[in-house]
Amino acid sequence: FLTKYFTIVNFFLQIVSFIIFHLKDASLVIVGPPIDLQIRDLGLLGQLHIQWKAPLNLAGQSLCVIRYMLSYGNSDSTNCKNVITNRMEYTDGFNLNKEINVKIRTLVKGQCTNGTELQSNWTELVYRAYMEGHSDSKIKDLHCIVYNEEYMDCVWEMQSSAPHDVGYTLFYWHQELEQAEQCKNYIENQESKIGCHFYSDDLIQFNDFNICVNGSSENKPVSPAYFTFQLQDLVKPAVPDKINLTLPKTDEIYLEWEPPSGKIPPHCFEYQLDFRQRDFEWKVRKTFI
Fold first, then answer.
1. What's residue 160's pLDDT?
2. Where are the beta strands (DSSP E) in 42-116?
3. What is the DSSP string of 127-179?
């Protein structure tokens, strides 16, 4: 009897071992989407941190190469950014004035799929920045000019329907700052803030320069407005130095000048000359010399 019993037990254990062995080597045929997708505002005027977790059915899959395809953009735009990463987090800048759509899916390939790439369904999340106040309370527009790379002035307009007692505040951030900072030198008109003056130490080029203008009013909440600039695109150079005009002949003129002083290298300038004779139309010439 005992011999028969141990024979049955041994046979059963062999079957279990066979099933476990083949389950371990079995190929995945379906993969789940990432779970617990979250979007967190870092308080840096547009920088959002996206994070997620791996799908549950990939736990313990050591033979898989797991990546994630992240697609994001404003909900009203057809131009979405697409990123493939093996990490489970991503940070980028966004336009917080608009609704943001983020979606992500799992990509799996390797021995666990016999070399075939599997793609999960999308997991999607919509993010809306907190916008207290009606849209007519925010500033109308923001215009910024970098003068000869020495300083920058940003000025805004107030909407006609904005509260009469509104007071605006400007904050800015770029990647060299640990946190958003408030404008140190406001431009005022009749005791109302209408802009901000930035010194050269506050400026950075070839990186996003994020600005938020919000405000306060006793009558109603004021909605914030967000802007992102590339400051190298906003530079207005100074006028040329030491302009000299001579008449070597009666029928020609000779004009010479020196490049403007400042931080901009001379080879970066292009010059435009507008001229005309009396009662004739203006003519335009451009030169790098």
1. 79
2. 47-53, 64-74, 81-85, 89-93, 100-110
3. E-----SBGGGSEEEEEEEEETTTEEEEEEEE-TTS-TT-EEEEEEE-TT-SS
Q: How far apart are CA 106 and CA 33, in angstroms?
A: 5
User: Tens of pLDDT along 52-66?
Assistant: 999 988 877 778 899
Residue 16 lies in a domain: no
Q: Are 229 and 267 members of one domain?
A: no
Write phi, then psi, for 143 (nearest 5 degrees): -115, 125
> 286 CB contacts (<8 Å, ≥6 apart)?
270, 271, 272, 273
Mean pLDDT value across residues 242-270: 83
Domain tally for the chain?
Answer: 3
8 Å CB contact between 118 and 55: no
Q: Are strands 186-189 and 139-147 parallel, antiparallel or unpaired?
A: unpaired
CA 274, distance to chain mean position in Å, is 39
Residues written for the chain: 289
CATH of the domain at 160: 2.60.40.10
At residue 55, what is the residue type?
P
Residue whose token pair is 């046979």: 11
The pLDDT confidence band at residue 85, using thresholds 50, 70 and 90, is very high
Whether the Cβ atoms of residue 143 and residue 192 lie closer than 8 Å to each other: no
What DSSP state is assigned to residue 267? G
Whether residue 135 is contained in a domain is answered as no
| Contact residues for 199 (Cβ-Cβ < 8 A; gap 6+) | 151, 185
Q: What is the CA radius of gyration of the chain?
A: 32
Closest CA to 102 of 34, 193, 45: 34
pLDDT score for 9: 42
Which residue, 99, 97, 133, 102, is CA-closest to 210?
97
| Least confident segment among 17-21, 31-35, 116-120, 169-173 | 17-21
